[in-house]
Specification:
Layout: E1 6-12, H1 15-27, E2 34-36, H2 44-48, H3 55-81, H4 94-120, E3 141-146, H5 154-163, E4 168-173
Antiparallel strand pairs: 1-3, 1-4, 2-3
């Protein structure tokens, strides 16, 4: 059987109030599980304390792999497996390898980034999404707080959310 957790959800109407509330709640010693919003909120990553993504490093590494594979494949085919002199050129004419090398670099970098993002974000096709409140797809912002990962009592967290502008505070078990 799957593990269930108890969450307190703070519902916010405005993104400016949300940003101030996140800052105040974190300063109050509460660990926020996640914040859900119907649209991107500028600056929310900084307020939540998220670090810069390392996905660009992963993309570079997959691109480097694509470049290496393309050049190895072409040099192997043209110089070891089936050496041919075409149009008086060398066995390994590097300028003619550039288009294939570029295409394989872009292909592996893009597929590698998508695959890595899906693994990191736990976006499995067979997975079931945690929907805390259906209004997050419409017009409400939700701050989800896991009760098990916080030391404060439920009533103290409830009061902290209401004092920081939450229009309503709900409890949910997932």
């Amino acid at each position: 059987m799957a593990h269930t957790s108890n969450y307190i959800l703070g519902v916010y109407e405005d993104e400016d109030v949300l940003l101030k509330a996140i800052k105040n709640v974190r300063e109050g010693g509460v660990k926020i599980h996640e914040v859900y919003s119907p649209f991107p909120v500028h600056g929310i990553e900084d307020v939540l304390g998220y670090k810069r993504s390392r996905l660009s490093i992963v993309a570079f590494m997959f691109g480097l792999l694509g470049t290496s594979l393309a050049l190895t494949m072409q040099f192997g085919m043209m110089t070891i497996d089936w050496p041919m002199i075409i149009g008086g050129k060398d066995y390994a004419p590097l300028p003619s390898f550039i288009p294939v090398t570029f295409e394989l670099t872009v292909l592996l970098a893009s597929f590698g980034m998508v695959g890595t993002f899906m693994i990191i974000s736990n976006l499995k096709p067979w997975g079931k999404a945690k929907i805390f409140d259906k209004r997050i797809t419409d017009d409400k912002h939700i701050v989800a707080i896991d009760l098990e990962s916080n030391k404060l009592e439920e009533s103290a967290i409830d009061k902290l959310l209401k004092d920081n502008g939450a229009s309503e505070v709900n409890k949910k078990t997932l």
